[in-house]
Amino acid sequence: MLSLYRNAFGGLSRQVWLLALVMLINRSGTMVIAFLTLYLTQKLHFSIIDAGFVMVIYGIGSICGTFSGGKLTDKIGYYPVQLWSLFLGGIVFLMLVHVQNYYLFCALVFFLSALGEAYRPANTASIADFSTPETFTRSVSLIRLAINIGWSIGPAIGGFLASRDYTLLFWADGLTNIGAAILVFSFLRTTRRPKTDSQAIKPIINPKDSAFRDRKYLFFLLLTTMYAIAFFQLFTIGPLFYKQVCQLSEIQIGYILGLNGLGVALIEMVLVYKIEGKFEKLYLISFGVALVVINYIIFLFTHNYAWLIVGIIFATFSEIFAMPFMNAFSIERSKPHNRGQYSGLHAMTWSVAQISAPLVGTQTIAYFGFDALWYILGSFGLISAFGFIWLKRI
């Protein structure tokens, strides 16, 4: 077993490990988003529809952030984009803790999301720069490992903090963002790969290289968006369902969400190492997407805490099988001079989901109840799963 883990983590560059460390520090503070709907309804006493629109604003900001982040990455490089998105995002977190006005809160949430999501395409481009084609998927998985260790720590601590004072979540997120920015400034600015003579010559860009002309990739993005909408509800509407319907405490909610991150942290790297290259990526993605549907079936039939844990385990394996290979598929279709654009569009699918998920979720719950939402999300998951199979066959 130790040999298996050593082989799974072996051969990755020092720079990728540094990126993973930055991500671990950053995501250990991922508390506010997991509890934002609860904060808005329980602490600020906004209605559930108002809370849903705040999440919509967050999603709009993330679309602007990922698109501009991809453009800026291609123009000025991934280092400054990562540095300033982390640092300024931390400042906005510290500002939000003092805001109770609904419209000002929406405005700051927009800037927070735009700054935070600009980090993603820059991070993906930097992983590609410091990896070989053979190690890229495992490098992505290492970053995701850091994300999920942080995610397992963050909500668990967040549930503890929220049970005492919701404003502590904003302080924790703000300070960890600033800490991650300091780490980027201290280490990654001196580890950027020097350009070779061939890279120093600006390539002639063919308009046909645009990701917007890649029809197969655009269809891939549509399917990814549908999956992302289904998956995101676990972390936006899920906490509300756990609290209002299942009557769980904030600490129990934190444990469930943290279990997802812990499961990915323990399993993903080894599983990717064992199956990479043995199966078609789109088939693995399809299998992973289908697994999230099981979680919503469980939501429909039981509110028992043990079964909710079983559901999050299926959602965890959904993430493990789907997301690393989605990233790999995206990068494989790009070229060095348009990698930021491809990465930005892929990140935008999750941003679109951040808009659609709370909007669909809160409106459906308000008018039809939670069960209707689980039917809708299950249908999204199934359509997406079969779509990825069809995409492979064409």
From TrEMBL:
Keywords: Cell membrane, Membrane, Transmembrane, Transmembrane helix, Transport. InterPro entries: MFS, MFS_dom, MFS_trans_sf, MFS_Transporters. It is found in: Cell membrane. It is a multi-pass membrane protein. Its main location: membrane. It comes from the Bacteria. PROSITE patterns: MFS. Residues 15-394 form the Major facilitator superfamily (MFS) profile domain. The chain crosses the membrane at residues 16-40, 46-64, 76-96, 102-120, 141-162, 168-188, 217-241, 253-273, 282-299, 305-326, 347-366, 372-391. This is Na(+), Li(+), K(+)/H(+) antiporter. It comes from Emticicia aquatica.
